[in-house]
Design brief:
Blueprint (H helix, E strand, L loop, with lengths): L1 H22 L11 H15 L6 H23 L1 H14 L11 H5 L3
Length: 112
């Protein structure tokens, strides 16, 4: 599961950092991080896809959101028994349950 998350978050972080740095022209002397390279990349993608280059970033953002929802659904499915047990304990304890009775996010993420 750890590698699944790394292989999901790695490309998103790389794309997001490239997009942010190149959009604001923070190149640090690297051509690929310049605004000219940014515009060139989206012009090429726009030409290949047959659409205006300015419509591509919102489509990519929407695709990342949908993919992220799928990833979180897979994680929730894998941890469904633990989540159901936590929910049942929370419901049985009532509204005024002390916080130490509820599992932390860290204990849920360390499950096999």
């Amino acid at each position: 599961m750890k590698w699944f998350l790394i292989l999901w978050a790695g490309p998103i972080a790389l794309l997001g950092s490239w997009y942010g740095l190149s959009y604001y022209d923070m190149s640090f002397g690297i051509f690929m991080l310049t605004r000219d390279a940014h515009d060139l990349v989206f012009r090429v993608y726009g030409h290949v896809l047959g659409m205006p280059p300015e419509t591509i970033p919102p489509l990519v953002a929407r695709a990342i959101v949908v993919d992220s929802l799928f990833v979180f659904a897979i994680i929730a499915f894998r941890k469904r028994k633990r989540i159901a047990a936590w929910w049942q304990r929370r419901r049985d304890a009532g509204e005024g349950a002390p916080a130490q009775d509820l599992p932390s996010a860290e204990s849920l993420s360390n499950a096999p």
